[in-house]
Specification:
Length: 123
C-alpha cells in the first residue's frame, strides 16, 4: 500500500494503537458491568426486585446494606429508622409515595425477629 491514506496511518501508528485499546475498553466496560450479579452488588441477604434495588441503591450511598438486613423490626421501628436517617444522618427526604413504598419493603423484608438468619455472624 502506497496510498496517501496508508502513509498517514503508518505515521499515526504509535498514537493509533492506544486509541484502539481505549476504544476496546470502552466497548467492554458495559459488558463487564452487566455481569455484576445481584449478590455482588447488594449482598446475598438483600431481596430481589425493583423496589429492593431502588431501596438498595438509595441506602448504600452511605453504608453497607448489611447493617439494614441485620435488623428485624416492626413497621413503627422501621419508620423511626427512616426518620432517624433523615433527621440525624442527612438522608434525602422522600416523597410520600416513595417513603411508604420503602417502609413497606423494609417491614416486609426484615420483619421483627427475623434478623438472625440473614447476615451470618451478626446478631
Ligand atoms: C446520607 C447518609 C445515609 C443514608 C442515605 C442512609 N443512611 Fe442509614 N445510616 C447513616 C449513618 C451515618 C449511620 C450510622 C453510622 C453507621 O452505622 O454507619 C446509619 C445507620 C443506619 C442503621 C443503624 C444500624 C445499627 O447498627 O443500628 C440502619 C438500620 C440504617 N442506617 C438504615 C438505613 C436505611 C434503611 C436507609 C435507606 C432507606 C439508610 N439507612 C440510608 C447514614 C445514612
Amino acid at each position: 500500500m502506497t496510498t496517501r491514506a496508508a502513509k498517514l496511518l503508518r505515521r499515526a501508528g504509535p498514537a493509533f494503537a492506544p486509541a484502539l485499546a481505549i476504544a476496546g475498553l470502552l466497548l467492554l466496560a458495559p459488558l463487564a458491568a452487566a455481569e455484576t450479579t445481584h449478590e455482588e452488588e447488594f449482598g446475598a441477604y438483600w431481596p430481589k426486585g425493583e423496589t429492593a434495588e431502588e431501596v438498595g441503591y438509595f441506602c448504600m450511598a452511605c453504608h453497607s446494606l448489611a447493617i439494614i438486613a441485620q435488623q428485624g423490626l416492626d413497621r413503627k421501628r422501621w419508620d423511626d429508622v427512616m426518620q432517624w436517617m433523615i433527621e440525624d444522618h442527612g438522608m434525602p427526604e422522600l416523597d410520600e409515595e416513595t417513603y411508604t413504598r420503602f417502609l413497606d419493603f423494609l417491614t416486609e423484608s426484615f420483619p421483627e425477629g427475623s434478623h438472625k438468619e440473614r447476615v451470618p455472624g451478626r446478631s
